[in-house]
Each structure stands twice: as structure tokens, then as C-alpha cells.
Amino acid sequence: MAVQLNYIAGEQKASRSGDTKEVVNPVNQQTVGEIQLSNEQDLNEAVEAAWNAKKAWKKLAGAERGSYLYKAADLLEQNVDNIAETMTKEMGKTLPEAKGETMRGAAILRYYAGEGMRKTGDVIPSTDSGAFMYTTRAPLGVVGVITPWNFPVAIPVWKIAPALIYGNTVVFKPATETAVTAGKIMDCFYEAGLPEGVLNMVTGPGSVIGQGLVEHPKVAGITFTGSDTTGKGIGQAAFARGAKYQLEMGGKNPVIIAADADLDKAVEGTVSGAFRSTGQKCTATSRVLIHSSVKEAFMQKLFTRMKDINIGDGLQEGVWMGPCASEAQMNSVLAYIEKGKEEGAKLVYGGNRWTSGEYKDGYFVEPTVFDEVKSHMAIAQEEIFGPVIGVLTFENIEEAFELANDTNFGLSASIYTQNISSMLQFIEDVDAGLVRINAETAGVELQAPFGGMKDSSSHSREQGEAAKEFFTSIKTVFVKG
Ligand SMILES: NC(=O)C1=CN([C@@H]2O[C@H](COP(=O)(O)OP(=O)(O)OC[C@H]3O[C@@H](n4cnc5c(N)ncnc54)[C@H](OP(=O)(O)O)[C@@H]3O)[C@@H](O)[C@H]2O)C=CC1
Ligand SMILES: O=C(O)CCC(=O)C(=O)O
After folding, report:
1. Is residue 225 in contact with ligand 2, taking CB distance under 6 Å?
2. Whole-model pTM?
3. Rounded to whole angstroms, how far apart are CA atoms 35 and 109?
4. Which ligand has the minimum distance to the alpha carbon of residue 442?
5. Span 253-445 CATH architecture
6. Ligand nearest 285 Cα, by number?
7. CA-CA distance, 295 to 10, in Å (whole number)?
């Protein structure tokens, strides 16, 4: 099996380290590929390539930059089967989800390709009647893109596409777990004919390549999605040297089931929000806040629906939930389940590693429900990133809103209710960047701003037009004859 090479200055390159790592399928530990554990020299070479390419790239018309993104979108779409299958093998997401994500990547590329033709500033009346004042935007320069393994196509693309269209050049450091899929995205960009050095990829340890990017004096901006701890470290290091940074981190997303909720829809939204992608989404539902009067009926319906969850290899037709992405991730989820029991929450569904038949060595965890969860418990406060939900009961809607906000995170929050006053109060009171009414907590549209409040992000937003705020600086221009 060929080693996944780096992409530097328009070429695929072997790392100077010579070290490699096997990437394995979390279903059966079969080898999916081999990636390079690159070193600082490789990183420096990639940053130099991006640095040398930035002037010419910035000078191209936006429409011309966009034409490369349109081509990359077409190539991503043409290769959807191959890319999606690799993604499923690398991190376990089901094939339909992986295909959907790849197609979403193509749609994101097309959206940002169009940005090359849209306005870049405003005319602002000056107090001097003889002057012309307006704003325009300048790219940052070289941008470092550091991404996680849970959306191996969508997240890299929603960072790389706006970075490029607004005139930046990029060094991309993908998650080690999904670096083979990342290579397939890079193939699409390279086949699209991007000029040399505009987009580079270096694989390798986060502590070396990721950290090296963050600290590199020629990297003007860092965009990151991943864990809270890593994100905060990146923010501090970037701030210390004056680089711009954007962090998308965790969530502890609540769904509120009000007394008047349509319970069938609420169950469907809870199951989909909590267990799709094996709960490995920052927008996944992890706390279910339920009015005591409908709790019993909701729980019955929830358990009935959960019995239909078909676990297995995401490549197989009909499988609805795959494994955790890695052994470390599975162990982390199982440790949280133990913690929940120790804390006194009541395990009412699942709670074990799932080892059925041919899947005995897979990194699977049963869909799991804890009841009688208290808000101070670690399982109600920390991101588990697996198929685990905690149920908390409330007596009135104000109490539900307080519980929803009783966490350091503030990414997504949802409510199921038919009462318009409850909806409006929820929209106003909940501390979350994504507020969802009668819809699951997960679900992100590429043309809308995405990001969270409190510790979920660095108070910035990605996607849609919001991406422009990170990837450019505003220039206010005053012209007088
Ligand atoms: N918000 C989200 O969408 C995500 C949240 N998570 C949370 O994080 C937990 C752990 O997952 P994990 O993959 O370890 O997440 P990390 O935050 O450690 O990894 C995310 C990315 O950052 C890189 N990285 C790691 N250390 C550094 C560093 N010091 N400087 C710069 N970049 C670095 C990683 O590289 P490498 O892969 O080589 O380590 C990867 O590319 C999960 O259980 C989950 O709770 C995880 C993924 C996504
Ligand atoms: O829900 C989504 O589509 C995106 C979620 C996300 O950004 C994440 O989990 O990192």
C-alpha cells in the first residue's frame, strides 16, 4: 500500500523524517493506509511554498480563484464513491453519511467559488464632501488549517475554500486518523490545477506539525476545529505572537422536551442528534432535558426507537451506526460511562462495548442512556463525543432553560414544543450559537454562520458569509483628489 505523501509546492513529497504510521479501520483493524509522520523541515518547506505563492494568488481576480474551486468541486463529486469509502474505512462513519458529507464538500466549494464574484466592501459617506470613502478586504497571507477526524471532508473544505477564495494561501494539517481521506481531497485540488504553493498539506503529529504551524512566524492565521484543550493551547500560542486565530471546539448540547412536545418528533430528533455518526459531532445531542409529565411516555418511545438502531460496519447496507473512530476514542467513551455510574446516574440503556459476532474486535459502544443525571455530574458537563445521552428532568420551562445554560459550552441547543411563547423565550434566553426549534441539535447549513458561545468557540463564526471576517482584514480607504 502506497504511503500517503505530503503535498508541497505543487508536488507530492516524501517526508524527510522517513517515519510512517499505519491507519487502521476501527471496525476490524485492517490497514486502510500508511501516513507520514513528518517533521519541522517538511513543515517549513510547506510554509515557504505558501509564502512564495501568496503574492500572485492574491493578485488574481476573485472569479479566477473561484474557477479553481469550481473544478475542485466537480472532481470531488466525480470521486465521491472512492472518497466516501475511504472515509468510512478510516473513521467508521456510515457510507451514506460519508457520501453526503463529500457531496456537501462539493457544495461548499461551489458556494465559495461564487464568493469570488461578490462584493468585497461598502461605500461609506465621508464627512468631507470632496472625499470618497469605502472599505475593501485584504487576505491574511499564509493560513494554517488544523482539522479533526470527525468530518474529514466537510471541515477541511469549509476552512480551505474560504481561505483560498479570499486570497490566502494554505498549509493544511489534517487529523492523523483521517489523513488518507485528506490526501484524496488534496488530489482534487491538485488536479484542478491550483498554482504551485497555494495549497499544501503536511501530515504528522499534532504536537509537531500542528504546534509548528501555530508558532510559525510566517503563518498569519490559524483556523482550528477539535478538542477544547488543544484549541485553548492553540489560541494562547497564536495570541502570544499576534497571529489571528479561530477555534471551533466542543459542545454539550441540550434538547428540551416540553410538556406539549410532539413526542414522536422529539424522539426522532433525539436519536438522530445523539447517535448519528456515533455521537462524534460537536453538535451532537448529549443532554435530554424533559418535563416530568411526559418523561415516561418519551422514554418508552425512545427505547423502542433505539432497539431499531442497526450497529455494524458502515460499509454494509442498512447499518445505521458505526464504531467510534479509534480505540482511544472508544476507551474515552467507556471511561465516561463508568464515571456516570460512579457519579450515581442510573444506566437505563446500553452502557457496554458492543462485541457482537464478527465485530468482536471493533471499537463499538452501545447506544447508551443515563437517567437521573444531575447537572453537576461530569457526564452532564464534559464532552463525551460518543453515543451517550444523559436525561435530566424539569418541572417548569424556566428551570429547563437554566439547566440548558448550566455548562461551559454553548454550541447548539434545541427545544421541542408547540408553544410559541416557549419558543421565543428559548431563542432569547439560551446561550448557544445554533438555536433549533423542533429540530435536532445537529445540522449545519453551509450558507449560514456556524459557531458557538462561551467555551465552544473563539467567539468567531465559520461558513457562509461569516467566513470572510476571519480570512480577511478590512481596509478603510479614504480618497481625495
Ligand atoms: N469539536 C469537534 O468537532 C471535535 C472535538 N473533539 C474532541 O476532542 C477529543 C479528542 O480528540 P482529538 O482527535 O485528540 O482532538 P485534538 O483537538 O487533539 O485534535 C484535533 C486536531 O488538532 C491537532 N493537534 C493535536 N495537538 C495539537 C497541538 N498541540 N497543536 C496543534 N494541533 C494539534 C490534531 O492532530 P493529530 O490528529 O495528529 O493529533 C488534529 O489535527 C474528542 O474526544 C472530542 O471530545 C475531537 C474532534 C472534533
Ligand atoms: O454537524 C455538523 O454538520 C458539523 C459539526 C461539526 O462541525 C463538528 O462536529 O465538528
Report:
1. yes
2. 0.98
3. 26
4. 2
5. 3-Layer(aba) Sandwich (3.40)
6. 2
7. 58
